[in-house]
């Protein structure tokens, strides 16, 4: 088993502890002190050193000391420890370092948060590498479970049970099913799913069926309310037959009266259709006259529009040509300015050539004069070298003078050539300006001619067509008047009395038909009620089938957990675990309750029994995970004795000591 022993821990500016170093005994160490002397801080510091949290799993608890309600500035919180792992010592250190920076444009440093620094054996590491190394030593969750006697029992009951199943192992579903044929059939049905998933699935189905079942009585009640009362439908059918016969007699009388009216209507309709046909011809005559008048006016408008478009196009052409002419004139101005500059440049080069040509070699003294004493030098070698150099200088001067004159001459030739090109281009541009002016004059003349022609065209006003003034229309109107005079005249035949009688009989017939329709409605609602009652029986049977499966699942789970509970409880010395509990009504439900051997829940026992129960659990966890680590026992003064354990014990004991007192127990 891997054994982790805390040999030494040092705190600097950590949670109110300015500086403290504690050495621990290999087997057991007790730390004494009054309340608020920072005994529990030792445990917090050790957990923070490893995982960056306190014993309550908080990351953001106050670490840097606070005085008078304010954080101490420029102070680093530091925890270091020496641990022994299977005989090999390792030094760990974690530092919460305050960062102070000077912002641009300011002279004072300001607080810029904190950063955490990590060290193993005084070698700095990155956060990820440090975490990896700690994880290699021990998993965080396992550490909490095997160092704090109260941690395991503070977990959610499902997490506790999961750990216990992992330690004790579980009985396979097949082993349980082998004891009961119904269990075997159940396993075959849920193939591919877990028992829990299948239970949730059928429970959801059962809830849906129950919801559907609750709705059926209301539906039946509503259908009964809608069902009409039963009547003597044979009597109603006889009345309906008599009513239909009377309606036929009245309709026959109305038909005879209307037949007479129809003969008049047919003659009137024939004459009216002929009149309508003539009116259509009249409308066509007027339409043709309006169309002719409109066409004449359109031709004039079209001619004027064409001239207007030509004027607009010519004006655009004129504007483009004027712009073109202005651009040419602008180019001439630009070339004129450039020509002037070039000619001035020629004059400057000419003057420069004259001045350069006037220059002559300034003869140097025939004797070499000493620069220090200002007297003629008598050194023969020096004088010969002086004369030789003087001749070389004179030759070099005239060669350089010739080169300068040649360069000036060449530059003047290039500029003269450029001037000729500019003058030639200006002549060409001037010619194009004259051509543009001629084009502008021609376009302007075209515009003037078109404008005169445009003004001379007058569009006639819209003329109102008067039908009576059209001979053809007038002749058609006379034909219409003739036909109107030939229209037959007759008196209106009154069938109101027969219509009222038919209306009364029809209303009575509708009432009788409505009463007969209730017979079909009663049959329809009766069938619906029978269908709902059948559905009730089907749903009730489905619910019963599901409840049978739920009972079977609960029985299966109970047997399985009873076996697991037996396995688990054989592991522990003083603790027992109940994996099922009962409600006040006696119904069983899944749970995970730690009790003592007498069945009393550990949560309501005294502190001593709670601590020893925690150590009992730690011993089994350490054995299962093959690792032991220091166990911190708070309020140890309330515990007379503790169970034997392979783990290092660190007791936190309340005493009258105003300062922490550490005692190693061998």
How would you describe what is shown here?
This protein folds into 3 domains: 2-138 and 629-665, Rossmann fold, CATH 3.40.50.300; 169-226 and 497-570, no CATH class; 233-456, no CATH class. Helix content is 61%, strand content 15%. The protein has 13 helices and 15 strands. It has helices at 39-51, 127-137, 140-147, 151-154, 157-168, 173-177, 181-189, 195-226, 233-358, 380-456, 471-485, 496-569, 607-625; strands at residues 2-14, 17-23, 28-33, 66-67, 70-71, 77-85, 88-102, 109-120, 123-125, 576-582, 588-595, 627-628, 631-634, 649-654, 661-665. Strands 1, 2, 6, 7, 8, 9 and 12 form a 7-stranded mixed β-sheet that branches. Strand 6 and strand 7 (88-102) form a beta hairpin. The chain is flat and about 135 Å long.
Shape: flat
Radius of gyration: 61 Å
Q: Low-confidence stretches at least 5 residues in length (pLDDT < 50)?
A: none
State the helical fraction: 55-70%
Number of domains: 3
The helix tally amounts to 13
**Number of DSSP-assigned strands:** 15
Average predicted local confidence, pLDDT: 85
Share of β-strand residues: 15-25%
User: Main beta sheet, described?
Assistant: 7 strands, mixed
In terms of quaternary structure, the protein is single chain
Structure summarized in a few sentences:
61% of the residues lie in helices and 15% in strands. The chain is an alpha+beta fold.
């Amino acid at each position: 088993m891997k054994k982790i022993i805390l040999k030494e821990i040092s705190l600097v500016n950590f949670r109110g502890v300015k500086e403290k170093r504690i050495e621990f005994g290999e087997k057991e160490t007790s730390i004494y002190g009054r309340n608020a002397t920072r005994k529990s801080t030792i445990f917090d510091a050790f957990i923070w050193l490893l995982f960056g949290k306190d014993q309550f799993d908080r990351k953001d608890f106050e670490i840097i000391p606070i005085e008078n309600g304010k954080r101490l500035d420029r102070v680093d919180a530091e925890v270091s420890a020496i641990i022994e792992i299977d005989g090999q010592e390792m030094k760990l250190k974690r530092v919460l370092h305050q960062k102070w920076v000077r912002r641009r444009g300011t002279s004072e440093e300001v607080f810029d948060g904190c950063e955490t620094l990590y060290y193993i054996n005084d070698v700095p590491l990155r956060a990820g590498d440090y975490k990896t190394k700690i994880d290699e030593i021990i998993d965080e969750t396992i550490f909490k479970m095997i160092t704090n006697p109260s941690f395991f029992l503070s977990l959610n009951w499902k997490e506790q049970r999961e750990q216990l199943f992992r330690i004790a192992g579980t009985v396979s579903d097949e082993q349980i099913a082998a004891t009961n044929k119904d269990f075997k059939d159940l396993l075959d049905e849920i193939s591919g799913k877990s028992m829990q998933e299948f239970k949730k699935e059928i429970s959801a189905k059962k809830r849906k069926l129950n919801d559907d079942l609750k709705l059926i009585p209301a539906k039946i009640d509503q259908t009964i309310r809608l069902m009409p009362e039963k009547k003597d439908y044979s009597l109603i059918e006889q009345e309906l037959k008599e009513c239909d016969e009377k309606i036929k007699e009245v309709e026959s009388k109305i038909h005879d009266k209307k037949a007479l009216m129809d003969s008049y209507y047919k003659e009137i309709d024939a004459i009216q259709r002929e009149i309508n046909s003539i009116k259509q011809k009249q409308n066509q005559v007027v339409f043709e006259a309006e169309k002719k008048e409109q066409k004449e006016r359109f031709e004039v408008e079209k001619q004027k529009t064409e001239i207007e478009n030509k004027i607009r196009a010519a004006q655009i052409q004129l504007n483009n040509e004027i712009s073109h002419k202005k651009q040419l004139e602008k180019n001439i101005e630009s070339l004129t300015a450039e020509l002037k500059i070039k000619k001035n440049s020629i004059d400057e080069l000419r003057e420069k050539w004259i001045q350069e040509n006037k220059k002559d070699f300034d003869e140097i003294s025939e004797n070499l004069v000493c620069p220090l004493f200002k007297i003629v030098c008598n050194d023969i070698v020096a004088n010969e070298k002086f004369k030789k150099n003087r001749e070389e200088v004179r030759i070099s001067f005239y060669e350089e003078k010739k080169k300068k004159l040649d360069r000036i001459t060449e530059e003047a030739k290039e500029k003269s050539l450029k001037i000729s090109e500019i003058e030639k281009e200006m002549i060409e541009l001037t010619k194009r300006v004259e051509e543009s002016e001629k084009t502008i004059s021609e376009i302007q003349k075209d515009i003037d001619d078109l404008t005169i022609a445009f003004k001379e065209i007058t569009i006639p006003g819209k003329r109102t067509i008067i039908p009576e003034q059209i001979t053809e229309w007038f002749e058609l109107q006379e034909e219409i008047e003739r036909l109107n005079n030939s229209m037959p005249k007759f008196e209106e035949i009154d069938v109101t009395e027969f219509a009222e009688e038919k209306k009364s009989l029809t209303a009575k017939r509708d009432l009788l038909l409505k009463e007969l329709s209730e017979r079909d409605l009663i049959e329809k609602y009766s069938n619906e009620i029978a269908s709902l009652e059948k559905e009730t029986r089907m749903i009730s049977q489905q619910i019963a089938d599901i409840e049978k499966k739920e009972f079977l699942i609960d029985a299966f789970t109970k047997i399985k957990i009873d076996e697991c509970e037996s396995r688990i409880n054989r592991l522990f010395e003083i603790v027992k675990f109940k994996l099922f509990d009962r409600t006040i009504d006696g119904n069983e439900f899944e749970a995970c309750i730690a009790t003592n051997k007498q069945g009393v829940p550990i949560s309501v026992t005294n502190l001593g029994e709670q601590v020893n129960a925690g150590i009992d659990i730690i011993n089994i966890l350490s054995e299962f995970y093959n690792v032991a680590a220091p166990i911190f026992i708070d309020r140890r003064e309330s515990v007379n004795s503790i169970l034997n354990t392979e783990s290092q014990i660190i007791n936190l004991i309340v005493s009258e000591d105003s300062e922490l007192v550490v005692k190693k127990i061998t």
